[in-house]
Design a protein that fits this description.
Elements: E1 8-10, E2 18-26, E3 32-38, H1 44-49, H2 57-61, E4 62-66, E5 69-71, E6 87-92, E7 99-103, E8 109-113, E9 119-123
Parallel strand pairs: 2-6
Antiparallel strand pairs: 1-2, 2-3, 4-5, 4-6, 7-8, 8-9
């Protein structure tokens, strides 16, 4: 899907045309969950509404990340610099906690502040790509 990403015109209301971009929404492990046609002024609400099965509590716990920044109700895709063919990473904060963890191809996992967005700690020493990371149910272990 990423290879054929193209800008396209969609008609949101009769008589008007708006430029849309094709985005992929992926897990931290790289599995594609959805390919959506989105508009530059969309926020988290509009993007989440296009992801199959993401509703209610899951939508509230969802966090969409792009280039180290989070798409929220106050920020739009355009404000984050998202362009056609981009990938947004979807993670969940089911605990409603203060921390978020990410996995990366650079052989690290990182713990982030959910409040400030700052990297709190980088976990190094893995021999290869860290494909996923999660907190234990009590939040004490990664």
């Amino acid at each position: 899907i990423r290879a054929i990403a193209q800008c396209m015109f969609v008609a949101p209301a009769p008589g008007t045309l708006r430029l849309a971009m094709i985005l992929s929404v992926v897990t931290l492990g790289g599995r594609e969950l959805a390919a959506i046609a989105a508009e530059v002024d969309w926020t988290k609400r509009e993007v989440c509404s296009q992801i199959p099965g993401l509703a209610g509590h899951l939508s509230r716990a969802a966090r969409l990340l792009y280039g180290g920044a989070e798409l929220s109700q106050e920020t739009s895709l355009g404000m984050l610099g998202v362009t056609d063919g981009a990938c947004l990473q979807l993670v969940f904060d089911m605990r409603g906690g203060d921390f978020l963890i990410t996995a990366s191809a650079d052989r690290t996992a990182k713990v982030w502040s959910a409040v400030s967005g700052d990297c709190i700690r980088t976990l190094e020493g893995h021999g290869g790509w860290v494909r996923c990371a999660a907190f234990s149910p009590d939040g004490a272990l990664v």
